[in-house]
Design a protein that fits this description.
Layout (H helix, E strand, L loop, with lengths): L2 H19 L4 E6 L9 E2 L4 E5 L2 E5 L5 E6 L9 E2 L3 E6 L2 E6 L4 E6 L6 E3 L9 E3 L10 E3 L2 E6 L2 E6 L5 E5 L9 E3 L2 E5 L4 E6 L5 E6 L17 E3 L2 E5 L4 E6 L5 E6 L10 E3 L2 E5 L5 E6 L5 E6 L9 E2 L3 E5 L4 E6 L5 E6 L1 H6 L18 H15 L2 E7 L2 E6 L3 E5 L8
Amino acid sequence: MDCINQIKLYVCIVLLIFSVNLHAHSTWRYKLPGPVAGAPLVLKDQIIATGGSLVVGLNKEGKLLWQWNLGSTTAASAATDGEYLFINADNGLHALTLDGEPLWYFKSEDNENLIDGRPMGWGKIFVPDAWSFYRSSPIVAGGKVYFGNQRGTFALDAKTGKQLWHLSTGVTHTTPAIYKGMLVVGSWNNKLYGIDIISGSIIWTFKGKQPYGQVIYEGFNQSPVIYDGTVYIGNRDTYFYAVDAETGKQKWSYKHPTSWIGSPAIEEDGELYFGMSDGLTLIRLNAKNGNQSMNFNANFFIFAKPQMTDTQVFVATMAGQVFAVDKKSSKGQLLFSTPDCLKKCESLIKPSGGMKYINDTSADGMARNVEFMVDMADSLLSMTYSDNTLYLGSAKGHIYALNPHIEITH
């Protein structure tokens, strides 16, 4: 073989190796009996995950350590105070030891968010919102555990499960946030509440906009994040809000031209990252003024909360794909696709981006479109980054663990 051909062969081999390394493979996969909507909770020696009616403890190699049947479905992450686990299911809040032994159970039924069919031309009916995948995950602080459901917001004693207070905040499926003795929760009734953490009384209320005049396009579907005295939260009204945590007054709002905010925000060094629904993009805003500095097109709906390293942001889509996006250049690279997406996503994603919808605008059609998406892609609903590993939760009940580190060319 002459020198030129040897060089060509060498270049081809290098390019092949590089292209293979750009697409990560899961190091392991574990199957649960229902959607893993709540992001896996990573502890020192185990991973706590929920799906269907089960909560499980897995070791870092994906092997089952223990499991507990909650007796009802759950769509929320587990929380811990370092001693107990707390899981919100559709039959109430469960407390377990760290090795899965039950401690107490607080009964309080939850259910799906219902939407008024009249604005959609479906008649005087209320139907389950097929795009509402999540429930409120509990948050633990000061020996108390807080969570929301269809009856509102609750505070319980973390040791005993005794109810300390309850406040009617509408159907509350967002995870609370805490700021200086205040609990902040967002509700499907389109209100954001600042609540006294001791008494459960309302300190302030903030109401989102309603740009289309239709209740189907409103509601705080995302969990608040608090940074430097400001509450940041997305709404189905297509606005992302910055609200003063002390007063409940709006500081600024960011209006996206397409559909609602798809994912909760994550904050890093005064920058906010979140995903859009029909907007198909990962957005970065400056926390002080709302100025946009990133718009990465992921080609599909983004519902899972972004995760990040010092240099990259990971974004997962409902098409079952994960991208690594460079913070400086805003360039991204496809990192992972679910096995279903590798086989079927060409039938799901339009060439211009977004979903190839089934042509049915009825209430049943909305549900069938969601089923079609999940069947095609094994949609990614949740994501946790810990110890150089991404843990992905899917709509078909899979947990994928992968090493996400790749070099993005500039």
